[in-house]
Design brief:
Layout (H helix, E strand, L loop, with lengths): L1 E4 L2 E4 L3 H12 L4 E5 L20 H5 L6 H12 L5 H20 L4 E5 L9 E4 L11 H14 L3 E4 L1 E9 L2 E9 L4 E5 L2 E4 L8 H8 L18 H8 L8 E8 L6 H7 L5 E2 L15 H9 L6 E6 H9 L17 H10 L5 E4 L2 H8 L3 H16 L20 E14 L9 E3 L5 E7 L19 H25 L1
Helix pairs in contact: 1-5, 1-14, 3-4, 4-14, 12-13
The structure holds flavin-adenine dinucleotide.
Flavin-adenine dinucleotide binds next to helix 1, strand 3, strand 7, strand 15 and helix 14.
């Protein structure tokens, strides 16, 4: 078996792993970082940016969100069922982390809201291409990788952490496997696990959460995120946590293009398969809340309905709710695209000349649905006596053809697995730290309680970066304590 030595081994190079590796190297320690994939970044390569509170960018934009305000919001939202010290430290560090990233050459486009009712905490990365949008954060990852390399961090690509070596209760090494199956032993004094959860492990997701991919759940499955970190930590005695998903509503099936997504991700009539309304659709923009509501319906399914008049309005005059993710003002192209989706056999999108036909196609109880539409149209003329939806979002369903699309729960990934304290030390069921073992990022993220916190957007990438930094810094302090 080949061997190497380092002070710290960081297992994985997503945003939490890179932050941990840079922080430990900045403290003067030698670092080897393992990365299973051919490149760094993990899920963050698909995202747009992290949370920051009280940053200079927010101050310049007059959109400042203080740590105190965010902390109060957060703890009320979670009913104090989460680690308050960890939340506070993460929030307090977040402005410094944005500045730390800027010092590495990361540029931010602006501090944005996710939807009007959320706070402007989402620091959208300015990508090399110049145009902000999905995948913008890949440029942040590039700058972090350059910084890590400049500090002497040795990144071993296509090399996965496989086991921890624990002697006399302390971490003394990591066994890794190359893509050819060769084993490599790295002697070290501290290890940081940052493997991003297990969103790609359908079996484990089903076992821990009950969701079945491609049946009642259509989340992201980033290759390689299969739960290695959680397994490795448990093998050396770490306590496990409850598992949650970073839920968001999801459209399923082939050829769901941006114009189709833009037209249906709007606050229009949403029914379940029983034909009844079950949600105040003005909150559809909060993807986690919408997914929670859909989650408890029959077949975990919600059906969004629009008519020809709404569609035309969206194509010609623009959609009601714009999102940074789609970055579109209107649904231009909808007519052509929906024909392609339907003709290709996508079973989740429908067009019909009558409401009866639409209900049959979508498998919605027809009689109840027709009554629901009548009542909804009456609300559009009066007010929404059922859920109190705001008036300007009440658009009647009257003009043929009619369109519908099915929504299901989906997720950006898993949350939790490895129990840590607020020093990012991995702890046993007795709450004793395992000396030399740290973890960060989504492997450890249980701070949202039961539902992801979209009201302070950028939260998971923010959590990954800040807890990664904390883990790297605290591992460095631990190493210093060994020589005292
Ligand atoms: C489409 C999409 C958009 C998103 N947008 C945002 C956003 O704008 N803002 C936000 O806050 N959050 C966003 N998120 C969530 C955010 O990207 C993640 O929360 C964040 O990347 C988690 O960081 P991490 O370091 O914990 O794990 P990851 O980024 O998932 O990285 C984990 C890394 O571990 C590696 N790995 C796994 N096992 C091993 C092993 N055994 N050995 C070595 N390496 C291993 C993987 O290859 C990967 O590189 C988005 C997620 C998705 C899917």
């Amino acid at each position: 078996m080949n061997t190497k030595q380092a002070d710290v081994v960081v297992i994985a190079c997503g945003p939490s792993g890179l932050a941990a590796a840079i922080a430990a190297a900045e403290s003067g320690f030698s670092v080897i970082a393992l990365e299973k994939a051919m490149n760094t970044g993990g899920a963050a390569n698909m995202g747009m940016g992290p949370l920051g509170l009280n940053t200079t960018i927010q101050t310049q934009e007059l959109s400042n969100v203080t740590v105190d305000k965010a902390f109060k919001m957060f703890m009320e939202y979670t009913h104090w069922r989460v680690d308050a010290n960890l939340v506070k430290q993460y929030f307090e560090k977040s402005a410094d982390t944005i500045a730390w990233l800027q010092d590495m050459g990361v540029e931010f486009f602006k501090a944005s809201r996710y939807f009007p009712g959320s706070e402007a905490t989402w620091h959208i990365v300015k990508p090399e291409s110049g145009k902000p949008g999905p995948r913008a954060a890949a440029t942040m990852i590039k700058r972090m990788t350059e910084r890590a390399t400049a500090l002497g961090v040795q990144i071993l690509f296509e090399t996965a952490g496989d086991h921890l070596v624990c002697e006399n209760g302390k971490i003394t090494g990591v066994i890794a496997k190359t893509k050819d199956g060769e084993e490599l032993k790295i002697d070290c004094k501290a290890a940081v696990i940052c493997t991003g959860g297990f969103g790609a492990n359908a079996e484990l997701v089903h076992e821990k959460t009950g969701y079945t991919y491609d049946k009642d759940f259509f989340g992201f499955r980033i290759p390689g995120l299969v739960g290695d970190g959680m397994r490795m930590a448990q093998e050396v005695g770490a306590a496990s946590t409850d598992i949650n998903m970073e839920l968001a509503v999801s459209m399923a099936g082939e050829h769901m293009t941006d114009p189709i997504r833009a037209a249906f991700n709007q606050p229009n009539l949403l029914v379940n398969l029983e034909g009844e309304r079950f949600y105040n659709e003005e909150l559809f923009e909060n993807s986690t809340f919408a997914a929670n509501a859909i989650n408890i319906q029959k077949a975990r399914c919600g059906v969004m309905v629009i008519d020809e008049a709404i569609k035309r309005h969206y194509v010609k005059h623009g959609i009601d709710v714009r999102s940074m993710v789609l970055n579109r003002e209107n649904a231009e192209g909808f007519d052509e695209d929906i024909e392609v989706a339907i003709n290709s056999g996508n079973p989740y999108v429908y067009k019909a000349d009558t409401l009866e036909e639409l209900a049959e196609m979508a498998g919605v109880k027809k009689d109840v649905f027709l009554k629901t539409v009548d009542m909804y149209n009456y609300y559009c003329e009066t007010y929404d006596a059922q859920f109190g939806k705001r008036q300007d979002y009440l658009k009647p369903i009257v003009k043929a053809p009619f369109y519908a699309a099915k929504f299901f729960p989906g997720a950006y990934g898993t949350l939790g697995g490895i129990k840590v304290n607020h020093y990012m030390e991995v702890i046993t069921p007795e709450f004793e730290p395992i000396p030399g073992l740290y973890a960060a990022g989504t492997d450890t993220c249980t701070i949202y309680g039961d539902s992801y916190m979209f009201l302070l957007p950028g939260n998971t990438m923010g959590y990954a970066l800040n807890t990664g930094r904390m883990a790297g810094e605290n591992a460095a302090e631990y190493l210093k304590s060994l020589t005292r």
